[in-house]
Amino acid sequence: MSRRLLLGVTAALGVVLTLAVGLWFWAGVVAPGYDASIALGVAWFVAVSVLAGRIAKRRPELRRVLRVTFLTATALTLAGFGWTSLRETQVDERLETGTPASRLAPEQRPAVDDLLAPQP
After folding, report:
1. In 3D, which of 38, 36, 63 has the Cα closest to residue 52?
2. What pTM was estimated for this model as a whole?
3. Domain total in the chain
């Protein structure tokens, strides 16, 4: 294997691993909710894009490999996000239900003060 090919494969694997590990960490571990997960994932991809651009300026022979790998990984990530997030038509969540207060006997109805009190 030539030195240039080895360098290109290493750069491509570095981009993919950096994107995957960072996406898992920022969007999966750190983010407190769904919207924050998306925002941190996008921010991570922007940060990696800037970093890859700086590396490409220093090493012009890696420019094409870095761009193609980054754009391919981004397209696959967006396709995966769309596949798992946008096509769902059914929600499988347990819905908490209860008896309306108007159907309870007067002695079972909670006082308004109890409803406004902070819950432990």
Report:
1. 63
2. 0.71
3. 1
Answer whether residue 120 is part of any domain. no
Expressed as residue numbers, the domain containing 59 is 3-83
Q: Band of the pLDDT at 48, cuts 50, 70, 90?
A: very high
- Asked whether residue 32 is assigned to any structural domain, the reply reads yes
Residue 33 lies in a domain: yes
The tens digit of pLDDT for each residue in 1-46 reads 799 899 999 999 999 999 999 999 999 999 999 999 999 999 999 9
Question: Does 43 fall in a domain?
Answer: yes
